[in-house]
Amino acid sequence: MLKSEARKVFSAKRKTTTAQQRLKWDDLILIQFQSLSLPDIDMLFTYAAMEMEVNTDPIVDYLHFRNPAIQVAYPVCEFDKYTMQAVLATPDTPFIKNQYGTPEPETAGASIIPPEAIDLVILPLLCFDKLGYRVGYGKGFYDKFLEQISDEVLKVGLSYYEPIDKIQDLNEFDVPLDYCITPERMYEF
To answer: So which residues are the signal peptide here (predicted)?
Structure first.
């Protein structure tokens, strides 16, 4: 399946998924995530979910329970360059929606986290394939960011849906996931 086709198919699928289904699936994804054998995580880079995305809040809470000193950073997009920065957030940090409706932490006075300080990345996606490649929203923000992190950093995708067989139009900028977690199971690549 081509990325453009996958975006259409899975965007439409998301629109037919009810809020009740998403809540149930978020719980099942958390249970799957808790079975993941993780090293010590001091710096998490994750996303603040839009309405149709897998909610990362329960996973962040779980990681805080495992390590109360964990720090959490969220992306703030730079739309003129299609890049993003990791911005440190606390439970008191206000979030505002960017031009695409994605919640981002307020940046005034916030710390920018260098990519090399990150231990775990949790990525949003529209779909993924059986080789661990993801289809995002098509702007390349995450691909450019992932180029800057160590190969040792775990990259975990979260998906409400099972994988497609293969993304046919991969390019040299596509970075595979280490894991993708669905309500049904955890995929390791």
So the answer is: none
% of the chain at pLDDT higher than 70: 100
Alpha-carbon span 31 to 183, nearest angstrom: 8
Contacts of 162 (CB under 8 A, 6+ apart): 182, 184
Amino acid at 135: V
What is the tally of structural domains in the chain?
Answer: 1
Integer Cα distance of 24 and 183 in angstroms: 9
SS (H, E, C) the chain: CCHHHHHHHHHHHHHHCCHHHHHHHHHHHHHHHHCCCCCCCCEEECCCCCCCCCCCHHHHHHHHHHCCCCEEEEEEEECCCCEEEEEEECCCCCEEECCCCCEEECCCCCCEECHHHCCEEEECCCEEECCCCEECCCCCHHHHHHCCCCCCCEEEEECCCCCECCCCCCCCCCCCCCEEECCCCEEEC
Which range of residues forms the domain containing residue 90?
3-188
Q: CA 130, CA 119: separation in Å to the nearest integer? A: 24
- Residue 47 sits in a domain of what CATH number? 3.40.50.10420
Which pLDDT score is estimated for 108?
Answer: 87
